[in-house]
Amino acid sequence: xxxxxxxxxxxxxxGLLLALWGEREVAQDLNAAVSFATLAAAAWLTVLVIxxxxxxxxxxxxxxxxLNVFLVTLTAFVGFTTSLFSRPYMRVERDHGKMTPxxxxxxxxxxxxxxxxxLVALTTNNxxxxxxxxxxxTLATVLLVSVYRTAASLEAAWKYxxxxxxxxxxxxxxxILLYLAAERAIGGGDNALLWTHLAxxxxxxxxxxxxxxxxxxxxxxxxxxxxxxxxxxxxxxxxEGPTPISAVLSGLLLNVALYAVLRCKVLADxxxxxxxxxxxxxxxxxxxxVTAAFFLSRQRDVKRMFAYSSIEHMGxxxxxxxxxxxxxxxxxxxxxxxxxxxxxxxxxAVGHAVQKAGSQVMEDIRGLIKVNPTVGWGLxxxxxxxxxxxPFGVFASEFLILTTAMRELPWATPFLLVALGVAFAAIFxxxxxxxxxxxSLRPLAHPPALLPVFVHLGLALMLGLxxxxxxNDWFTQAAHMIGG
Amino acid sequence: xxxxLAQSINLFAVALLVLAFAxxxxxxxxxxIHLFTLQGASLVAATLVxxxxxxxxxxxxxxAITFVLKVVLIPILLHRVIDRLNVRWDVETLFNIPTxxxxxxxxxxxxxxxxxxxxxxxxxxAAGTLGIALACVLLSFLMMIVRAxxxxxxxxxxxxENGLFFAATAATSGMPMIVELGIAFDVLVGIxxxxxxxxxxxxxxxxxxxxxxxxxxxx
Lengths: 484, 219
Hints:
The complex is a heterodimer. By secondary structure, chain A is mostly helical. Helix content of chain A is 78%, strand content 1%. Chain A has helices at 2-21, 27-52, 66-95, 101-123, 127-145, 151-186, 195-200, 207-225, 233-240, 243-272, 276-296, 302-323, 325-357, 368-371, 373-386, 393-408, 412-435, 451-465, 469-481, and strands spanning 55-57, 62-64. In chain B, 49% of the residues are buried.
């Protein structure tokens, strides 16, 4: 209970503190320290949950179970490593005159508040609070996307706000319908939106209302996940904001939105009993994977390309959770973990490469391996990992998803294979000259933060070769919770 | 008395819907803000009636929050924004108002059909108005699509929030208090951020035309 309080309170207080001191030189380290404290609290919480079982605290308003505890730790971990990466990155941006003191303060404060809101969304038991926290997480990042005040970044932020606002409004309508169903089944009042209560009574919920509610919830939270056709905000927001924000958006926010969909799917599955929610997720997931793969080959901006790659991977996860069953759910959870680790590592490497080249256009970035071998290798290995090369963890999860698809949904397999092939060709052919090739670039003024890149890739490698038994139990339990 | 009150909920619901249509067709920014304020007022009235009839005390609070937010605070903010941006007397050219209205009517029919099976299940006295609430949401959505300026788009967004609040009141006699507070807070922060945005857009493009914001496309 204290551990959970710390997990939520540290980033919240850190955000307030940085709102006062965010422009000072020490703020960079303070930001990292706050994120580290959050990670330590999250680790403590995880140990407690593994030892004593799930937590349900504060009038049942917050809970930690096997499904969300692993996402809490992942969020705190990537939040911490990104704050390490942001130190040298933001120093360079400031030296280039892109970040004024006021903008630095906004950046640091909102970074922590964004983390806090994601952690609230993950740990709350109340589906209404989940909605509020998701919206608050959007609001925290929207000004960060436009922080450079360029025409393109303003456009990206406006799109992000309006499209996600509309999307999240659909999710609110879905939540209202869910409450309507709950009122009929278990009575109204403050407890009617508590997920644990709803999950206990999910067989009593009216199937008609729940099917409509799930349509709205999937479309609404799906906007945040980046599902096609409501994905348009995602590439712009990823490409135009500061790179640390791209890393946390891609690695964390999309996961949290998918988590919200999963919680709702459990309820809809229980009420409907006909697999409709799963089939809808399969459909959306498949369209997303295929569309994103074909958009990949048309990109010129490196951050935009990896944003489309995120859309593709989120589609793959949605597809896996749509299939359901113990193996596909396990694979989906594993994919969530490794994608978050690898994609944020790629954004770290890309961030340094872009600063070096002074451009996000891929044709301007050349020969990284000559100027700065570690950045070059980081980008190359990260790219190989995200493309599903063995022995990285993405290979393991994609292999599991594909074999399950072959068994349960044979017609979908060729689409997935084609999409993965196209994505491989598109991304590899562009990254290869960026890493190798001739160059006239100069090294960076500040030493790049490469520890996070290689720690992330190392973890992704480990997950591909060996999943520790406790982590395995954990994934299995979580997969079981979402209908495995 | 009771049936009269129940009917007055329908009256306010219809007012909400008519105002949503009026906003789609309205070209003057100032009048648009007046219409939005009026829509907020009908939402407050509808909430008060539901609160009185059902005896749900927390709905009075909900009505109070809506009043402060949608009738007082947000309109004041919008007035200040259009004053400082000097767009108070702007008139937007809208193409094809009749076509837009026809699409709007189709949306209303769709909304009623979608909501009908669910409304018949709801125990709340204003259940029949769920269709109207969904129609308001869809109409605001349409407004956001057809408008090219920033301020009308934002008003469309806020009017969608009105429709959602009305859905919550009509179908379920109000969400839990803490959730409503959270939503209200998000809306308020959202409008403040949008205000900041409008100044940034204006500074960058010398205009509030969203058509400037269509550069980021796939080649």
